[in-house]
Queue: 2 jobs
Job 1
Amino acid sequence: MAGKRRTDNKGRVLRTGEMQRAEDNRYLYRYTDLSGKKRTVYAVTLVELREKEKQIDRDLQDGIDSSKGDITLNQLFQVYMETKSDLRESTRYNYLSVWKNAIEDTALGNMKITQIKQLHIRKFYSELVGRGLAANTIKLYHNLINPALELAVDSDIIRKNPAKDCKKGIGGTKKERESLTISEQESMLDFIKNSSKYSAYYPMIVFALSTGLRVGELTGLRWADVDMKENVAHIRQQLIYKNLGDGCKFHIQDLKTDAGRRDIPLSVNARKSLIRQKEIYILLGKEMNQVVDGVSDFVFTNRLGIPYAVLAINFVLDNIVKAYNKLEDVEANKEHREKKSLPHVSAHILRHTACTRLAESGLEPKVLQYIMGHANVSVTLDIYTHLDFTEIQKKMDAVQKNVKIG
């Protein structure tokens, strides 16, 4: 005689592994996961329980070990970072810092990865937009979240990546990369050159505007990299100032991409700025400057022979703009005219301005790409949408004079 079949309190027959608890009438299902460990899932209704059973059966048949999905997104990210053995230390430090500051303490960061749905990630991005974050910043967060969850998919821990396609339609403010106009550039340089306080920075700023170097490439440039006879600067390394586990200090680092390794012809202005910098160097009686990772002879240093950190350069530029605008206020009032203030200027804006000037001069995009060290020409082409309108107008006038239409 067959044994009596188990039923719930509504008389429905329960399957193997299913039970209904007498104390609260909740349903449970017991099964063995892929590692041989006994697992239990709970549900309020039998219908809900059997939906969970279907998912469990699918996972077991497809070899997905959802038991490992008990880890949180934060824990998964740590595992993901451990797999990235090819990252530069500065990049690793940046990724970890971004995660800690932006994601670690959020509800999403503390969710178990098996519970994360696309809705949760889209909601997280939407909240960031509401806080006024830039679109590129949100995409940076996505570029950390997405591959971490993809690793969980590849490791058969979750069936699909809930972050997939969440990058599409990311809002946020779009920050235009603004370069100085020709007028602003000339006004700023004239002010610096004639300033008793800031004239020492003139050669470095002129060189930056003449070459378009990234700030780390600029501060990391050594006299050994400069060939005045052949009129060329060899860009071979960059200088960073970060804590890579040994306290905040300078480090010599490889260039960001292979495209960054390049030889830049020296323009007349670039050459003059180097000569002037050498004169300042000799005037101050510097025999050598600070040694960083076994190398020294940096071209641009302060009066103590210490290289510039990016924050230091941005601080100087900020002070220059404030001093210029303060003087411009006085002059404009005295001359009864509209004041022409300088906008915010950073080391990156100097680079963007240099690229814009080269583009305005008619330099071919592929040549400009090489000079700027862009890995992708699309970045270079984007510069052509930020050209000085006055220069565009001049070129259009020239075309109309030389080309007969109609």
Job 2
Amino acid sequence: MKPSTHTAGQPPDSAQQASHEQGAQTASAIDLERFLPYRLIRLSAAISRGIAAEYQQQFGLSIAEWRVLAVIARFPASSASELGEHTGMDKVSMHRAVRALQQQGLIASDQSTRDRRRQHLRLSRSGQQLHDQIAPRVLEFEQRLLAPLGSVRSGQLHALLEALQHSIDALDNSQHEAPRHEY
């Protein structure tokens, strides 16, 4: 590193100042193109848009509505809180999607016998039929998406995603289990 020619009481030369400002900016800027959370969010959004093309125009479902419909098909009799866990959606978006699907007659709810405040969501007959029409299309989209990877790299991708899920679960658990210090 070049020694500074700046002396106290004198302004730094413009090259020094530019170098210092660039270093400060580089140190604080995140290389988003390599930052995993950013890349995953962008990739997820792009994939969701691609899959949405398979059902939005023809069936009039939003991304959130399809996600809720698919999760209820996979996990019948889910409560709203369970549905939130499975979809990864925020409560407001999830409740809007549930309400829209109920208004369309695609899902129904049954009151829990154990807790009257709790509702279990299930697909209606028309909801199941709609799911069964859309599911093959989105699965075929997934196959087209993964085809360039080949079966080995596709399997590796799934294993890596599973490892990342375990990693974030462990981080979440360690944050919840961390001792609380009172001061």
